[in-house]
Specification:
alpha+beta, 2 domains, three-stranded antiparallel beta sheet, three-stranded mixed beta sheet, 10 helices, Transcriptional regulator, AbiEi antitoxin, Type IV TA system
Length: about 200
């Protein structure tokens, strides 16, 4: 099997990706010893010859591969808040566990039930890496749902900024709210802000 070199624009590789590129477990071990790779958990390696920009969401996704960027981190990504989070909010299924977390970026784990985890997920690719994030409407619904943890002022700011957007999809917002059993509170927030 022909071994394919690691890309300089991909920061993280899973063991499966390395095997698909022709690297044996022995070769992966040698690359780790030689300082080409750094193991960050059971399934993922950091490519130490990476030349791209640092991205907190891609770093978080490497440590929490089944996670989805959520709440205020997603709101910041979509430009719905001026709040600068000092942690990356990431949701995982409440039955899952995370074995290793980095010292940077700091990650805050939210445990979602399966119906909330599987709704409104989109994947963003940058260079050779990617991360999963809830779409904008799902983000707004989640923030309203978790308003007591996030703060009423922050929740109102996110919803006001969402309503100013030309690409908003109120029907999708209501669909998510109904699916996630928080339609009445979403409706109340919308009525207060629109009136």
């Amino acid at each position: 099997m022909v071994v394919i070199a690691l890309e300089e624009n991909q920061k993280y590789y899973t063991t499966g990706e390395l095997k698909d590129r022709g690297y044996s477990y022995y070769k992966i071990g040698r690359m780790e010893e030689n300082g080409q790779l750094h193991r960050i958990n059971r399934t993922t390696y950091e490519n130490l010859s990476y030349k791209g920009d640092e991205n907190d969401f891609i770093n978080a996704a490497a440590y929490v591969p089944d996670g989805v960027i959520c709440l205020m981190s997603a709101a910041r990504y979509y430009g719905l808040t001026n709040f600068l989070p000092d942690v990356v909010d990431i949701a995982i299924d409440r039955k899952k566990k995370v074995s290793t977390l980095p010292s940077w970026p700091e990650i805050k784990i939210f445990y979602f039930d399966p119906s909330r985890m599987d709704t409104g997920v989109t994947e963003i690719t940058e260079g050779g890496d990617s991360f999963r994030i809830f779409d904008i409407e799902k983000t707004v619904v989640d923030i309203i749902y978790y308003r007591n943890k996030i703060g009423i002022e922050e929740t109102s700011e996110v919803l006001r900024n969402y309503l100013k957007r030309q690409d908003r999809q109120i029907d999708r917002l209501y669909t998510y709210a109904k699916m996630l059993r928080c339609e009445s509170i979403v409706r109340t927030y919308l009525e207060v802000l629109v009136s």
